[in-house]
Design a protein that fits this description.
Blueprint lengths: L1 H30 L13 H34 L9 E9 L2 E8 L3 H15 L2 E6 L3 E8 L2 E10 L2 E10 L4
Helix pairs in contact: 1-2
Length: 171
């Protein structure tokens, strides 16, 4: 859906820029049957169309940045810990203090996701604590200076994974 809106905003901006360039004066000259160079022809739509085009391009830029962050989310998380294999990136939240946050979705139940991280923790030397039930699982893992919290909730047919990563400074 985000990709569709990105393309739609670019298209609308292009149409507005085209309209601002040619159509306004041509429309009024045809409507009043006067020459295009007549000084009293209204040209007040030009700034409105240009402003609309700038707004659409700005929205497309913001959405493009969001799509870029979303596509890089698995690689950013995997710098710290392996990402659960069956996920789709949903969002990347800007840094909050020293913590990094990422949101993902998966069709797998929370217990399967927790089992994956229990195996990973045992194989990779992470100290791990688990709490929760079949619909909500909270995993807290630590290794060295890195602390990873994975919160998994079941929402209908999908699970929502929230990764919270914090690197502590050495003392």
């Amino acid at each position: 859906m985000t990709g569709f809106l990105f393309i739609l905003f670019i298209f609308v901006a292009a149409v507005l820029l085209w309209a601002a360039r040619t159509e306004v004066v041509d429309f009024w000259s045809r409507r009043f049957k006067v020459h295009k160079d007549t000084p009293w022809l209204p040209d007040y739509w030009n700034p409105v169309l240009l402003g609309g085009a700038v707004i659409m391009l700005g929205l497309a830029g913001v959405m493009g940045y969001g799509l870029l962050r979303q596509s890089k989310a698995p690689a950013e998380v995997s710098r710290f810990i392996a990402v659960y294999p069956n996920v789709a990136a949903a969002a990347s939240v800007p840094r909050v203090g020293e913590e990094l946050h990422w949101l993902f979705r998966s069709d797998d139940p929370p217990d399967d996701i927790a089992s994956f991280y229990e195996t990973l923790a045992a194989d990779s030397g992470w100290a791990m604590q688990r709490s929760g039930d079949q619909n909500r699982v909270w995993l807290q893992m630590e290794r060295g200076r890195t602390e990873v919290l994975v919160f998994v909730t079941r929402d209908g047919e999908q699970s929502k994974l929230t990764y919270q990563i914090k690197e502590r400074e050495e003392s």
